[in-house]
Amino acid sequence: MASPSALPANISPVELAPCVLTIGNFDGVHLGHQAMLTQVRDIAHAQNLGSAVMIFEPQPREFFAPETAPARLTNLAEKQALLAEFGVETLIVAGFDTEFRSLSAQAFADILAMRLNVKALVLGDDFRFGHDRTGDSQFLRNYGLDVTNLHTVTDTSDKAARISSTRIRDLLLAGDIEAARTLLGRDYTMTGLVVDGDKIGRTLDFPTANIDLDRIKPTLHGIFAVDVVSLDDQGQVIPNGLLVNATTGKTGIAGLRADSLFGTANIGTRPSVDKGHNWRLEVHFPALHADLYGLTLQVRFLHYLHGERHYDGLEALKAGIHQDVADLIEWRSTQKTSE
Questions:
Q1: Strands (E), 68-172
Q2: SS3 sequence of 109-129
Q3: Which of 115, 136, 148 has the alpha carbon at shortest distance from 37?
């Protein structure tokens, strides 16, 4: 192992069990990411080590250029939940700031080995690090760490097409949620707290739950059919959790998964109401009357209807929403409950 350099004063000792580590943004935790996580678990099991993932907050491109950074597939809480579901034992969230980005490759390798107790790494074949970008897999091997490189994972339906967060963002933005589902290995979902909105939906007879996005901007825009469940503090589905405060006879339309309700979602900037880029995720639950404020809801996107539209006046907007809700309820009537 190379001689350790002095550690930055802001790096505190961390007591971790010896581990296998992978590093990256892991935005979306898609099939390519999952292949890397499987490799981490396999090596950890074979060498009797723990499994760990290092991610960055904010993501580097959000730090350098927040206005032009890619839309997030997953916020931090969603990413954490997905990684836990996949069996990651330790999640290391590295605060990406001026001091962190100034670390040399040597200093970063010292942190991995001396503070995080990393014994082996699984990295993409294009992984680089350090403020001068001199760090790569070979640098870490020379340092004395065991490094396994995982080559690009491609789509089973198109061997030449790389599975990437960028590709999934493009598919979602185009409304192709079925293709995005294939690359994610699951339905696309967003999770957030129901917060106060401007209550315009009530004046249009279509009350909505305004769900906190907790990201700079979302990766999909438009009108969707969704199903929604309520989650507890541990991220577990609460049985019939949206019906706790429901009025008798106004208990909504069943969703496609257990304990869910069907909803119609608008995600975007509401061009008929707002100015600027005030991104919102609003869900209307047909035939439901309930107080949802303060609940944590997981929204699963099932079907894309159309992009956001600009309507001339509130009456035209109300008529447009009425038609959208009717069309999506009709779509729901053709679907079978999956669970």
A1: 90-95, 118-124, 146-150, 154-155, 158-162
A2: HHHHHHHCCEEEEEEECCCCE
A3: 148
User: In this structure, are residues 59 and 69 in contact, taking their beta carbons and an 8 Å threshold?
Assistant: yes
Strand partners, 20: 51, 120
Structure token digits, residue 332: 């729901």
pLDDT in tens, 245-304: 888 778 999 999 999 999 999 998 866 555 556 789 999 999 999 999 999 999 999 999
For 196-240, list the strands marked E by DSSP: 209-211, 222-231
Burial class (CB in 10 A: 0-12, 13-18, 19+), 21: buried
Token pair belonging to 18: 């010896």
Mind listing the pLDDT tens digit for each residue in 27-44? 999 999 999 999 999 999
Distance CA 255, CA 303 (A): 13
